[in-house]
Amino acid sequence: MLMIQTFTNTQDDVIRYLYNETSNQESLLIEETLLHDGELLDFYLDCADIKLGLDQIQLSPSDKAIDKILSFSRNYQPKI
Which domain of life is it from (predicted)? Predict the structure, then answer.
């Protein structure tokens, strides 16, 4: 017996879509579903907002922060 796998749009599929990990055919199906499923669209928009925030996180201190620390250290005079 031949099994035909059908594509269902789940939250996992939406996340894969958000990270460009879907095929062209999957992307079209997800986009079509987002047009008609308000709950899944809300999930997509929430995830897109979270992804944008995560993409802006700096994992190491900026040069400006390091310069401020070094400047403070050079000019630090302990109170005696």
Answer: Bacteria
pLDDT digits (tens, 9 = 90+) for 29-66: 999 999 999 999 999 999 999 999 998 887 777 888 88
Name the one residue in this structure whose structure tokens are 């109170």. Answer: 79
> Which value, in Å, is the radius of gyration of the alpha carbons in the chain?
23
First to last CA, the chain: 87
DSSP output for 49-65: HHHHHHHT--SS--HHH
Where do the structural domains in the chain lie, given as residue ranges?
11-75
Residue type, position 25, single letter: Q
